[in-house]
Amino acid sequence: MVSGQELRVQQKREVETKQESTVPARFYVPVTDIFETEAALMLALEMPGVDRENVNVKLESGVLTIEGEIDFAKYEGLYPVYTEYNVGNYARSFELSSDIDQERISAELKDGVVTLTLPKAEKAKPRKIKVS
Amino acid sequence: MVSSFSSPFDEMFALQRALEANFASGWLGGGTAGPGSFPPINVFEKGGDLVAVIELPGVDKNSLEIEAKENTIRIAGRKTIKYDEKASVHRRERVTGSFDRTIAVPIQIDPDAIRAEMRDGVLALFIPRAERDKPRKITVG
Fold first, then answer.
1. What is the pLDDT, as a whole number, of residue B35?
2. Residue B59 sits in a domain of what CATH number?
3. B67 pLDDT exceeds 90?
4. Does pTM top 0.90 for this prediction?
C-alpha cells in the first residue's frame, strides 16, 4: 500500500522513579523522538492535552527535565462511560552528553507536540581540521 | 465525581480512577470499533449528551476527516512527521501512518449537531443525544 502503515495504539508508559511519590496519581512518559542537526540537538515529545503555559523545561547539571501538566478542570462534570486510555501529567528526563548552550534553549508547542531545540555550545560544534 | 477537590493531585487521581473503572467497558460493544484501534477514545456523558475525547498528538486538524451518520461516527486521518533530511536520529518512538476508525454509540444521536474541537493534540467531539431519544417524565395519574 502506498499510503504507508496503519497506526497502532501506543500504550502509555508510566514514569518510574527511585523515590516513591506521596500521591498515588499516575505520571506518564511522553513518547519522544530525538535527533541531531549540525547546530542543535532536537527533541519532539508528544504531550496531548498540555497547553503552552503548563510545559516546564529545565536543565540542571547535565540533566534535561521536561514536564507537562494537564488541566483536569476540563474534565469537570464529565462522567466516563467508556475509556481506552488514562490521562495524567507527563514527565521525562534525559542526560545530555554534548555541551549545550543553555541560554539559547527554545521550545515550541504545536498540536500537542513539544519540540525543543538545544543549540550546541560553540566548543561542541564539529570543526573541520585541515591537513597541512 | 470529578469535581471540587482540595488539591490538583486529588483531582488528577479521582479522574484517573474514574477512567480506569470504565476501561474498555462493554458500552461501545464489540465489532471493528473495539479497543486497540487507533486512535484511543474516551467517551464521557454530560447532562445526557456524549463527549468523546481522542488523543491525536501531532495530527494536523486539516488532515482529519470526521463523518457522522445515524449513530456511527467515523474519524480518519493521517499522521506525518517531517524532520530535516540531514538530521541524524538518536531515538525514534513516535509513530506515523494513517488511521480510520468508526464507532457506533448505543444511543440515538443528532448527527447534524455534532461539534468538533481540536486543541493541543486532543480532539473533542460533542455529541448531542437525539431529542426523540431523551427520557420523558411520566406522571402517575
1. 61
2. 2.60.40.790
3. yes
4. no
Q: Quick one: cell of B47?
A: 447532562
Domains detected in chain A? 25-122 (2.60.40.790)
The per-residue pLDDT for range A96-116, each reduced to its tens digit, is: 876 788 888 899 999 999 999
Q: Look at residue B87 and tell me if it is in a domain.
A: yes
CB contact under 8 A, A87 and B43: no
Domain that holds residue B76: 28-133
Whether A20 contacts chain B with CB within 8 A: no
Total domains in the fold of chain B: 1
Strand runs (DSSP E) across chain B, as ranges?
41-46, 49-55, 65-69, 72-79, 88-92, 97-104, 115-119, 122-127
Interface of A with B in 69-98 (CB under 8 A): 70, 72-73, 75-89
Comparing A129 with B2, which gets the higher pLDDT? A129
Of B45, B56, B87, the CB nearest to A35: B87
In this complex, the residue of A8, A42, A44 whose CB is nearest that of residue B95 is A8
CB B109 within 8 A of CB B127: yes
What is the spatial distance between Cα B78 and Cα B62, in angstroms, rounded to a whole number? 10
ipTM: 0.82
- Helix, strand or coil, per DSSP, at residue A38: coil
CB contact under 8 A, B120 and A4: no
Nearest CB among A25, A31, A48 relative to B13 is that of A25
d(Cα A67, Cα A36) in Å, to the nearest integer?
21
Asked if residue B81 belongs to a domain, the reply is yes
Distant-in-sequence, close-in-space partners of A98: CB < 8 Å, separation ≥ 6: A41, A120, A124
Distance, in angstroms, between B140 CA and closest chain A CA?
A: 30
